Amino acid sequence: MKFEKNKTILVPSLPLVCEILTNSCNQCSCDFLYSNSCALMHNSDDNINHEINIWRTNTMFNYWHNNFNSLDYDNFLVSMKYKIDKNAIIIEKIIINDNDFVNKYNNKRFLSDIKAKKLVKSLIKYIENIAKEEEKKFIISYVSDNLKSYNKYFKDEKFKLTEQTKICRTESNSIILYNEIKKII
Question: Does residue 112 fall inside a structural domain?
Fold first, then answer.
């Protein structure tokens, strides 16, 4: 089963989601009842900007992606936006329903640290495969200056901190400093 852009697929479990993202699932059986399954959606309008959304679903008709911006929804698992640039793939944002997300948004159902790390690792592997196909030299992302997400998700995947920083202004006019991280492909 191949995960392609502008499609939504339903799979019976989170481990199978990880297998599909890492291309280690050649023959996936989709004989299952639609309870406690996961939906994966990959959107791209221009082949440059991409978004992947993954959520829990109990039915094939529960296309929650129409309301995917409401991040306090308990079925949310992960959302990632990335861009295919001239020399690199830039991961613009990864939001995962982990313990940190729960503390921020008061979700009742969240992923354990082990499942969250495995899911992010699978997304990074998915991006690595695209980088190789597109002949890109780097994967770049930005992490907050406290480096919590870097240490939790990216450091073990061989991302390195660079000297580059990015300053962003929030809606409430606060300034946030982000550090660039880079992985050589």
Answer: yes
Q: What is the DSSP annotation of 116-136? A: HHHHHHHHHHHHHHHHHHTT-
Whether 120 contacts 95, CB under 8 Å: no
Per the structure, the count of domains in the chain is 1
What are the tens digits of pLDDT across the range 129-166?
999 999 999 999 999 877 889 999 999 999 999 999 88
Long-range Cβ contacts of 147-151 (<8 Å, 24+ apart) = 147/179, 148/100, 149/94, 149/100, 150/179, 150/181
Spatial separation of the C-alpha atoms in residues 21 and 127, rounded to whole Å: 9
Range of the domain at 38: 7-136
Q: For residue 109, what pLDDT band results from cuts at 50, 70 and 90?
A: confident
Neighbours of 61 (CB within 10 A): 7
- Looking at residue 69, what DSSP letter applies? T
